[in-house]
Task: inverse folding
């Protein structure tokens, strides 16, 4: 530290006693650049409000979720957001965050600021410079090209129980088309949620409500407000529908006055949506010289239409997936890259991969069309709101000239049969559709005649999971086991995805945990897994377990023939249910062959079990023959959505099935 002379200190003291010094202090306190910014009044008022009592697993509550969209006649759209979240538990601190998604080529974040208010009355300001701005594509190779960004502020490190985190954002952008969709909540409870649309004079809006009785807007001049209050939390129930099928949502379309040309396309019919999407995709699907040469190379020696489709489909799946949203402002992210460009780059997103596959097929004389679909929620798309916003994915449809029996073949009325295929999902072969897309409403995209169709649903037999177990049981309860599994359809795709995404070491750990869940302390000596012909998959496992069977005294040995569970099975253990149960088509067959220890006979064995419901069937039986015990079980589940009022029947079915799976066999020493 430095020291001042007595004379210098006296001069400084005299200066601070002058009036201009006091004026400077006052100016510093009043200047926004120098003084600490106080939280806005809307937030401080909310921070003092009372909240209802919630269960302990509810970590936070939304005090306010307000979005205001202001549309200008020239297509400029300003979206202002105010949101406040109160932290109820330490785990709920992660909810203290806010942000805005924008498009770098057309949008600009005008404001992003947040505050943390503490129960003591103190507060902290988070400014725009504190925001983390990242690409929506989490891929280092392609992130530099991505124009869709997310700017966010996270206050979890500063929040604690009782804190209130709030933020404001202002985004300016250009409208691509004249529609918006607003969800009133996520899984958190919300005390007040509001969507306001401010239109130019003379413009009108219409809305469709999802997952809630019709929400009528409050209308004043050309301003429309949809509002809900006291929304409960969304509980995390196994096999429930996705959030998009639970939380209230309004889908809004707005229309200019007759004297004004809309800044973007307006949609009242699905044919208009189809024609608009086709206008973006079709010109870029025309094959160039490189595409024609590649198509001929891929189909060389292929005679039938199906063989050519298979070769091109396999190549399209192997094109690397990368979501590169260039030119979003010009096409709303719905316009694919030219097919030749995707071929040259060897990467693209879903619409790019579909566009390339269409171009390759066209080069060998095979017609095809894009299909817009929502992947991940079979009940998300509404037929009464024609909008591209209802879709998050693109697949392809190929009209069939001959007969083909496959789970992914859809009937399209006058168009005959269509083979649907997803070139983005590299784990699901031609002839099958990934589970998240089955039974969804999808839009067949054509410049004229486009229509909604229902994606096909795989029957249980198309998702066969077949297992054979050979078990050698010793007199001390130890076992040696060989498991041989053959999988088809979605069962094969999900296991193929697991193996390839994890790598050999982590995949082995997953298999070892699965074996140990049925046979604690098991030692796995061999694991092999891989593809079978025609899209199948196999898993072979050999293991031993020292104390699988339980000895009782000198004479009894008790064990369960169902040594390992059906992988991927969801247990329904709640006594009550708020939401529907979503079941996916499944066919599981298992045969267990047990070599019984010498000197033992079967003393007790369960009786056969037969269960039949509208959504599933189950059969199990046990028999003894030539010193061996044979156990068979067969489960079939349909693609079904069971309403919560029928939950008791679903739970009873699975409870009885699990009881049969866990039923023991008792051996007695002779």
Result:
């Amino acid at each position: 530290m430095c020291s001042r002379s007595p004379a210098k200190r006296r001069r400084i003291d005299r200066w601070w006693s002058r009036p201009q010094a006091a004026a400077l202090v006052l100016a510093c306190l009043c200047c926004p650049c120098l003084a600490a910014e106080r939280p806005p009044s809307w937030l401080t008022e909310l921070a003092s409000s009372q909240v209802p009592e919630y269960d302990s697993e509810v970590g936070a509550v939304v005090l306010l979720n307000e979005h205001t969209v202001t549309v200008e006649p020239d297509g400029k759209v300003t979206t202002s957001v105010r949101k406040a979240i109160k932290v109820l538990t330490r785990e709920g601190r992660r909810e203290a965050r806010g942000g805005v998604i924008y498009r770098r080529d057309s949008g600009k974040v005008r404001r992003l600021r947040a505050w943390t208010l503490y129960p003591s009355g103190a507060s902290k300001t988070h400014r725009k410079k504190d925001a983390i701005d990242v690409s929506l594509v989490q891929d280092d190779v392609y992130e530099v090209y991505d124009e869709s960004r997310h700017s966010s502020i996270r206050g979890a490190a500063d929040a604690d129980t009782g804190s209130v985190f709030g933020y404001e954002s202002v985004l300016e952008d250009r409208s691509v088309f004249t529609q918006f969709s607003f969800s009133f909540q996520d899984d958190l409870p919300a005390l007040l949620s509001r969507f306001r649309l401010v239109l130019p004079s003379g413009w009108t809006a219409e809305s469709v409500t999802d997952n809630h009785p019709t929400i009528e807007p409050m209308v004043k001049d050309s301003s429309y407000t949809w509002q809900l209050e006291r929304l409960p939390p969304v509980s995390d129930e196994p096999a429930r529908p996705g959030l998009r099928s639970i939380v209230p949502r309004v889908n809004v379309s707005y229309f200019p006055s007759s004297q004004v040309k809309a800044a973007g396309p307006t949609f009242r019919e699905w044919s208009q949506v189809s024609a608009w999407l086709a206008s973006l995709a079709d010109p870029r699907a025309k094959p160039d010289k490189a595409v024609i040469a590649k198509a001929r190379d891929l189909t060389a020696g292929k005679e039938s239409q199906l063989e050519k489709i298979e070769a091109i489909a396999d190549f399209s799946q192997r094109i690397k997936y990368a979501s590169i949203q260039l030119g979003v402002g010009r096409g709303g992210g719905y316009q694919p890259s030219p097919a030749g460009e995707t071929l040259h780059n060897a990467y693209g997103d879903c619409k790019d991969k579909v566009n390339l596959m269409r171009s390759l097929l066209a080069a060998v004389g095979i017609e095809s069309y894009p299909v817009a679909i929502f992947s991940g929620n079979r009940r998300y798309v509404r037929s009464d709101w024609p909008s591209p916003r209802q879709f998050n994915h693109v697949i392809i449809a190929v009209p069939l000239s001959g007969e083909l029996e496959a789970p992914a073949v859809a009937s399209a009325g006058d168009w005959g049969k269509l083979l649907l295929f997803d070139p983005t999902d590299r784990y699901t072969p031609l002839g099958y559709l990934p589970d998240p897309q089955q039974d969804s409403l999808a839009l067949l995209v054509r410049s004229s005649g486009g229509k909604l169709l229902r994606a096909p649903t795989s029957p249980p037999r198309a998702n066969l999971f077949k297992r054979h177990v050979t078990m050698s049981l010793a007199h001390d309860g130890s076992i040696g086991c060989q498991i041989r599994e053959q999988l088809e359809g979605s069962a094969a795709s999900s296991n193929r995805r697991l193996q390839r995404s994890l790598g050999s070491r982590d995949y082995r750990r997953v298999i070892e945990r699965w074996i140990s869940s049925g046979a604690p302390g098991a030692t796995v000596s061999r694991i092999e897994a891989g593809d079978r012909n025609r899209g199948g998959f196999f898993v072979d496992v050999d293991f031993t377990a020292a104390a699988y069977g339980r000895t009782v005294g000198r004479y009894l040995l008790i064990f369960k023939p169902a040594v390992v569970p059906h992988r991927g099975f969801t247990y329904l253990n709640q006594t009550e249910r708020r939401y529907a149960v979503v079941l996916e088509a499944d066919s599981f067959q298992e045969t267990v062959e047990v070599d019984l220890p010498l000197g033992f006979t079967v003393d007790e064995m369960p009786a056969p079990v037969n269960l039949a419901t509208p959504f599933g069937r189950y059969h199990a039986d046990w028999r003894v023959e030539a010193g061996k015990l044979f156990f068979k079980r067969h489960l079939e589940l349909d693609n079904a959505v069971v309403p919560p009022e029928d939950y008791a029947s679903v739970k009873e079915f699975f409870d009885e099935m699990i009881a049969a799976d866990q039923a023991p066999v008792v051996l007695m020493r002779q």
Notes: The two ends are 95 Å apart (CA to CA). The first strand starts at residue 60 and ends at 71.
